[in-house]
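User: Good morning. I'm curious how adenosine-5'-diphosphate would be positioned relative to this chain. Could you predict the structure with it bound?
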Amino acid sequence: MIVIKVGGSDGIDYDALCADVAELYKAGKKLILVHGGSAETNRVAEALGHPPKFVTSPSGYTSRFTDRETLEIFQMVYCGKMNKGIVERLQKHGVNAVGLSGMDGRIWEGKHKTKVRSVENGKIKILRGDHTGTVEKVNTHLIELLSSNGYLPVLTPPAISYEGVGINVDGDRASAALATALKADTMMLLSNIPGLLRNFPDESSLIETIPANDVESYLEYAKDRMKKKVLGAAEAVEGGVGQVIFGDARIENPVSYALEGNGTVIS
Ligand code: ADP
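Assistant: Good morning! Here's the predicted structure, ligand included:
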C-alpha cells in the first residue's frame, strides 16, 4: 500500500499527477490519494472578504487560524473544488475514484482544539474559536471497504472531532496517521519543491536521504510549513511505515519519479 499525499501549493501539476496515479493503479499498485488545497483556499478566502490568518505557535509551527467561516471556506475548496477536480481527472482516466473528507465515515477523528497560542510581535496571544486538531483515530474499515472493491479513495481534510465538529488538520500529519494505520510500505509527500532543501530555496541543495532514526535532527533545515512535513515523516516511520519520500509534483510522472528514489528518501 502506498499513501500519496499531494499538497495544495501553486505550481503542482494535478493533470500529470492524476495521469500517473491512474497508470500505476491500473498496473495493480494499491494506492490511496490524499490532497491539500491551501493556495486555492487563500485565493477564495480573499475573494469572499475573509482573508486567511496564519498563526505561529511558540514552538515555531505555522498553521491556519480556522474560525467557523474559514472552516466553511476550507470545506468549499478542499472537499469541493479540489477533491472533485481530482476525482473527475481520475474518472477521465478510467479509475473509479471516490472523494471523501476525513469527516465522512469518521475516517480521520481527533481532538478539537478551540484555542491556539500565537506569537505576535514577540508576545504570546491566545486566539479562541479555532477549529483545528490532530488526527488520533483512523477508520481503516471504510478505506479498506472501498479499496478492496475497486474504488480508489481520494481523501482530504477536514477531520471530525469526537463531538462531531469539523476540524482542520495538517494533511501531512493526517497522511502519516493514515499510512501508519494502513501499515503502508510507502508514504509520499509531493509538493512544489524537489524535496527537503538544506538551503531553501536553493533547489540544488536537495537532501537525498535521511536515516529513519534521525528525522527530527533535520527539522532545523525546514522553514515554516515544511516543518510539518518533516514531523509527519518522523511520525510515519516511527509508526512502522517502511519509507517516506518527499517528491516534486510540478513534473510529469511525479509518483513514478519519486518511487524511483528521486527526492528526499527517509528510510
Ligand atoms: P503543500 O501544501 O504543497 O503540501 P507546504 O506549503 O505545506 O506544501 O510546504 C512546502 C513548502 O515549504 C515549500 O513550497 C517551501 O516554500 C517551504 N519550505 C520551507 N523550508 C523548506 C526546505 N528546507 N525545503 C523545501 N521546502 C521548504
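The chain has seven helices and 14 strands. The chain has a mean pLDDT of 97.
Let me know if you'd like a different ligand tried.
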